[in-house]
Amino acid sequence: HEIISFLGALCLFLSAVEYLIPKPFPFFRLGLANLPLLIGLRFLRPGDLFLVLALKIFGQGLVNGTLASYVFLFSMAGSTASLITMSAAYKLGGKRISLVGVSLSGALVSSLVQVILAVQFIFGDAAKLIAPLSLGSGMITGLIIGLFAQHFSCVSHWLKGLEIRYLACLNTREETDEHP
Asked: Is the pTM above the cut of 0.85?
């Protein structure tokens, strides 16, 4: 589906942009590549969201050269846990939770998963020393990404058009499936 491919490519573009931004700490990430996923929660089916996530994860691994490293595994685990959490928060929270809250929940879970993996498999108890900084920076960037996504989803005519195209494509596919 072209919209899924587009959102996956957008994840890669944002990942490349983020790669160019100097990092104050080695583990610090803005999470720009999560924007298409966060915005996609509004209209993508769960399977399509996970397809965009797979494009994001493997694309980042290729772009950043981390495909055969623990960094890739940490990214995969954190991103997957984040998407599951954001999807649940979005679906269960309904109108009571904004994309800011959804983004914060995803950022928190992603950071927690990565800290737990760092403690268990790579750095041991020494990883606990950077946990507060990792969690804090994750929450700050999650807030920023969430604020942007919330504003963008409210004002963007382009996004509303993308959503309409996606839903129209789904309806056409369902009609074709019903009447062979």
From this structure: yes
Q: Residue 37 corresponds to which tokens in the numbers above?
A: 């996923």
Rounded distance between C-alpha atoms, residue 62 and residue 46, angstroms: 24
Distance spanning both ends of the chain, measured CA to CA: 20
How many of the other CB atoms lie within 10 Å of CB of 122? Answer: 13
Considering just the CA atoms, what is the radius of gyration of the chain in Å? 17
Cα(139)–Cα(109) distance, rounded to whole angstroms?
10
Burial of 75 per CB tally in 10 Å (0-12, 13-18, 19+) = buried
Helix (H, G, I), strand (E, B) or coil at 145: helix
C-alpha angle 44/91/110, rounded to 5°? 85
Among 144, 82, 129, which Cα is nearest to 108's? 82
* Each residue's pLDDT tens digit, 85-106: 999 999 999 889 999 999 999 9
